[in-house]
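Record passed on here:
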Amino acid sequence: MTNIALVLGNGFDLDLGLRTRYADFADSKNEEWQYFINMAGTNINQLCPVEFVDHLQNARIFENWFDIEEEILKFSDSHHNLRDAQIGLIRQQYETLVNCLRFYIYRQANTAHIKDCSLANVLLHKLNESMHPVGIYNFNYTDCAKLCGCASREEFKMHYIHGSLFYNLTLGCRIENKNKENKQLDFLYKPTIDMQKDILKQNLTQATETIIFGHSLNMIDYCYFKDFFDAFQSGQQVCKCLTIICKDVKSEEDIRRRLNKNVCLSKVEKHVDFSFIHTDLWNSKDSKTLMQFEDLCKRISS
C-alpha cells in the first residue's frame, strides 16, 4: 500500500490565502508587532544596552528577506558575556515575541478567506479522500485541515513539528552542534532532539510517496530531512516519488541550491521520481503543470 507523507511549510499557508510570513507579522501596521517593538526604549533599556527588540526591528527594515529565526540565531551568536539582568530582559522580550506571533497568526487564521481553488486546498482534499494512510508533518502553527474543512479520519493524521497555536508553539533558532550554542541564551534555541523530529524522520524513511509543499528546506530545518536525502544517495530510500511544490522557478532554484549544499541531487534523482510543481503555473492553468498534478492525484488515489 502507498504510504503518503505530506510536509507543509509556510508556502502552503500562503497558497491558502493566509498572511503568515514573518515579514507579514513584522509589519508596522500590525498591532501585535507594534506591541512588541514598543518594548524597546523603555527605562529598563538603561540597564540593558543590548536590545533583542532593536535587533529584530533593524533586521526587518534592512533585510531583503526577513526570517525571525535566522535573526534570533544571529543575535545569539553575537551576544555573549551578558549580565543576569540583561539575560532576564532578553528572555522577557523573547517570550513577548512568541505570544505576539501566536496572537497574530490566530487572528489571521480566523479572519482569512481560504482560497478554495488553490492548489493547497485541492491537494489537501484529494489526500483526505485517499484510501491510503496519510501523515501530515506541519511546520506551520495553523490547523490547515480544519481551515479547509477536511473531515477528521484515522488514516489522515496531523503532526505539528513546531507546535500549534494552542499547544507548545516553538519559535527559535537551531544548530546541530550543541557545543556551539550560547548557553546564556539557551531559551532561544529549539530542541535539537524532540519527539516530533523523530516521528518525521521515521515516517519520511517509510513513505513511498512524499510531497513537500511550501517548505524552503532551509539550514535551520534541514536536520529533519538529512537522513531522508542521505538515504537516496545510497539507494536505501523506499520512497518512489518525491514532489516538491513551490511558488515559481526562482523558488525551485533556491531549493535546489540549498539541497546541493547538503546532498548530491544528481544521485538523488537516480533513485526517485523527483519533480517540482509551481503554484504560479498551476494558477495560470499551465497545461504541463496541470498534467503533473493530475498524475500526482492518480498516484495518491490508486
